[in-house]
Design a protein that fits this description.
Elements: E1 3-8, E2 11-16, E3 21-23, H1 32-38, H2 40-43, E4 46-49, H3 57-64, E5 75-82, E6 97-98, E7 107-109, H4 123-131, E8 138-142, H5 146-153, H6 182-196, E9 199-202, H7 205-211, H8 216-235, E10 256-268, E11 291-293, H9 313-330
Parallel strand pairs: 3-11, 4-10
Antiparallel strand pairs: 1-2, 5-6, 5-10, 7-8, 8-10, 9-10
Helix pairs in contact: 7-8
Length: 333
Amino acid sequence: MTGVVAEGEDGFIQINASKGVIVCTGGYGANLEMLDELAPGNSTWCGLTSATGETGDGIRMALWAGAELEAGGGCMVWNRAILPDGFEFDGSRTGGDIFLPGSQPFLHVNIRGERFMNEDQCYPMSFAAGANQPGHYSWIVWDGNYWDDIKQFDTCGCSRLYPAPSGTAFNADVYDCEALTKEHLDSFWLQPRLENGMLKKADTLEGLAEAMGFDAETTETFLATVEHYNELCAKGEDTDFGKPAYRLSDVEAAPFYAARIAGALLVTIHGVITDTNSQPLRADGSVIEGLYVCGNDQGGFYPHNYPSNFTGMNAGRTATFARIAAKHALGVE
């Protein structure tokens, strides 16, 4: 690989590279055709996407140069897309809104009013559990003690909503960098969704069920589910699904809240097979000299899903292997 040919407003340009070409274009999260073909299992039931310009160009260029694509696609998916009334999945991965509290381990029920999982799971596992329910989403439910519950949950990474005692960066909301307070949570995350109708609020559980669109039979099931869940919280032991005691929070204090939660696609994590120097490999294992593939265009790091138990893992691996590629291209030990 000796350079790149690109097309601009004034025609084609050729850029020659003396040390090598590093491909790092962010994956294919904004390419619906590639998502449908390569990663439908991870992305089909997403109601929101953060991908806007990542159209898979880098991966396709590497494939044209003879590289091999790893088998099986994968995406990093948040459990924080809030859905409006009447929402239907149409393949566009759009229509929802970002809702950071969706990643808190509050009670989840399906459209039948039933609890169906341990809500204390990493983002993609929680999303996947909801995606396998009728309608391919779940309702997240909490009560008026939510700020105390959020403090008790003590979540980490970008799901954290309560100030960290150490004074770290997680004392700021990762979406707008404002200080994490109850006032900020209410004004930035809750009130706007209450005003547009995506977030439901009621003074009684019966009223909440009505706002959720439940019929009489589903309401009865929902009320029984909440009653049983509150009993588990009082005991401090989730004998149904095994959620840790400090992640249990009852739903007893008015007002009550509910929101439809689905997947929010962040990036694809599926790409070209490389060696340890980030150089792509052909099907026979030989290296394509002068070419490097990094970031979300590079495959081989994940088993087709993102283990969110480690904060910043993808940021770390993309920076690390890009540095390795640059050093190798420059001949730096």
